[in-house]
Amino acid sequence: MITFLANARIIDPESLTEREGNVILDGRLIAAIGSAQAPKHARVIDCGGMALAPGIVDLGVKVGEPGDRHKESFRSAGLAAAAGGVTTIIARPDTNPAIDTPEVLEFVTRRAEAASPVRILHMAALTKGRAGREMTEIGFLLDAGAVAFTDADHVTTDTKVLSRALTYARSLGALVIGHPQDPGLSAGAAVTNGKFASLRGLPGVHPMAERMGFDRDMALVEMTGARYHADQITTARALPALERAKANGLDVTAGISIHHLTLNELDVGDYRTFFKLTPPLRAEEDRLAMVDAVASGLIDIICSMHTPQDEESKRLPFEEAASGAVALETFLPAAMRLYHAGHLTLPQLFRAMALNPARRLGLPQGRMAEGAPADLVLFDPDAPFLLDRATLRSKSRNTPFDGQRMEGKVLATFVGGAQVFGERD
């Protein structure tokens, strides 16, 4: 089918530009940009001057299959992603059991392809059971379709095991994703150290724990030459080390969650567990430093870090409650806060949310160019709404944005040229 998207505000993250124009989708690809007339027999969609951008490539989504399907299934995650403009989910391996063998990877791949309206690719565990004792069969997992390797928030404390895994990953060209935290300092922490944590009587972790974990990982990357991505850099103390690593030619990139870019430690308020995240929310000074780092390109990727938790695991005292928040549907509206505040332009946002994650993983998505996959999101960046978590499509609804006024509404989502969300004709 040929689709003619007319009168669109085209967001191009490669050239960091936006312009008015039309886009033609032919089958699964973008056939033309800027064409004045619709081809014969094409389906015409009037975009009404709304923003048209590459679909979000979300690096680091937790899906409950296998093991926690009651929290999130591939079907519910896919529907939430389509409604949020996410066209490619990069799923984490912190499942039960962990995705640490080719057999488990092949199972979840088949399940995802059958159930989800959007693309779902999978990361595999770096060590067996994410236990940090023995590395997985990285070569076989690559052959089975793993796009990266990570133990998620389980930090490998045995540096010899980690160095061997990095060396082996380097020999195969595999990307390793680390969680830069010192596990000793961060164990049992619920918030970031500071006056607020003391006033609330909550156990905290010093921001230096992130810097220490990152410094260790950079030393091992320098030793092994591995490709490395830090899943979240959230403190200003870690930025100079990241800048040095890049300046020294290490193959290193870094990400951050949309929650750490739009919320701070004070949002925890009176022990609101929907704001309990890993790593914990940081000081406002750190948040602003991270926004500047994204704008400059020092931090490469923004992700949702979507982590569904059921009501029972969140309705507990703050220290005991599970960490994490859902974000597939709120990712884009939350990002619009940065746009409306004047911190980031739409092309800069989609560079970090679509282009850079696709490039880091070697995927063709994330581009607004002829011949690129027709994975697109049409949205109104100015449309206001009041978020009601009861309307979310995720099975779990642990969002920190419940009841908040937001801006940015997805009108249509296309995956491989097929419309998977929206009724705008």
Automatic annotation (TrEMBL):
E.C. designation(s): 3.5.2.3
GO cellular component, one term: cytoplasm
GO MF term (any one): metal ion binding
Start and end residues of each Amidohydrolase domain: 343-421
Keyword Ubl conjugation applies: no
Record CDD domains: DHOase_IIa
Highest taxon above the source species: Bacteria
Database matches in InterPro entries: Amidohydro_3 (IPR013108), DHOase (IPR004722), DHOase/Allantoinase_Hydrolase (IPR050138), DHOase_cat (IPR024403), Metal-dep_hydrolase_composite (IPR011059), Metal_Hydrolase (IPR032466)
Dihydroorotase catalytic domain span: 51-235
Keyword vocabulary terms for this entry: Hydrolase, Pyrimidine biosynthesis, Zinc
UniProt cross-references to SUPFAM superfamilies, sorted A to Z: Composite domain of metallo-dependent hydrolases, Metallo-dependent hydrolases
Pfam families: Amidohydro_3, DHOase
Bilayer-spanning residue ranges: none
Class in the EC hierarchy, top level: hydrolase
GO process terms (BP): purine nucleobase catabolic process; pyrimidine nucleotide biosynthetic process
Protein name: Dihydroorotase
Organism name: Fertoeibacter niger
